[in-house]
Amino acid sequence: MAKHYLLYGSERYALAILRPLQDAIRARGGEAAWFFDGPGAEDLRPDEKLLTTTEEVRRWNAIAVITGSNAVPHFFPGVKVETFHGFDAGKPRHIYIRGFFDLYCTTGPNDTRAFSEIAERVGHFKVVETGWPKIDPFMQDIAGGLPPVRKPPVILYHSTFSPSWSAAETLYEEVKRLSRGGEWKWIVTFHPKMNPDTVAKFRAIENEHLRFADDDNILDLFPQVDMMCSDTSSALNEFLLTHKPVVTFKNRRPGPQLIDIDDAAQFEPAIRRALSRPPELMQAIVAYADSIHPYRDGRSSERVLDAIDAFIAAGSRNRKSKPMNLWRKLKIRRRIGYWGPA
User: Fold this and answer.
1) Which of 3, 1, 60, 59 is nearest to 26 (CA)?
2) Angle of the 109-122 helix axis to the 279-292 helix axis, nearest 10
3) Residue 189 and residue 203 in contact, taking contact as beta carbons nearer than 8 Å
4) Tens of pLDDT, residues 140-182
5) What are φ and ψ of residue 64, in 5° steps?
6) Can you point out the beta strands (E) in the chain?
């Protein structure tokens, strides 16, 4: 009998994160179904199975519920597996330890160390380093190495939605000015939760040198550009895996892998430096990329499924039981509208 898996999402970006897992499940003869308690279901393809009620989920009886979200309904059958919805953007990962998951599939050595230390202390989850499923197709696409800078160069501008972290309003006038000069091409895209007024401002400056992209999967844009400009978005870490430069504005965790600025007047010079690809910067980018995601084989989804199989084979239990989490469980029940047995 085919193994059943449930792919759980609360945002549209779950599709990009979990579809590579769906491909790996199908390649192994398994079956995947989706459940959304937020946007995303409307974008499923005809060949993708949607479950719309908890009763359907319980009948599906998955061996594992896999998600990139920070929480998961505890009353869904199966091992609860966290694959993350982005790399560490500068905030401590431990804030995501909320007692819902049996298994954390980490992206690379940095996260593995942090999560393993917590797992040793609390004992109610297991940590396995697998790499990140979302970027499996992407890693296969960039296997050919770093291409030369285009003529004219193409810049990706991306910002997170958090008002305290976003540089979109601060750098708006510079992006507007530089895009009208024509020396560089620009692609602008934002986090789905970005302030609609900010989105409207950037849409309004579209011209022959700047386009606003609505791509759900930002990875699709990475091969089209030569560098990124951002702030403290987790997407910049995904971009660094291309080994291309990133200019950031007041990044919360700057380092030698970034060209970080704190004044809009520094924006243009920083871009020029990034496009020149200085050797010390490029070496730092490669070292950082290896620390967050050393897997360049595009097989992270297979490693996640292997980790699930091993966890189940070992008895599907951790050293200690998960915490009661009564308040968080109540909120999930209310959100989904299910009050039956767990």
Assistant:
1) 3
2) 30
3) no
4) 878 777 999 999 999 999 998 888 888 999 999 999 999 999 9
5) -155, 145
6) 4-9, 31-36, 49-50, 64-67, 79-82, 103-106, 126-129, 154-159, 185-190, 210-212, 227-230, 246-249, 259-261
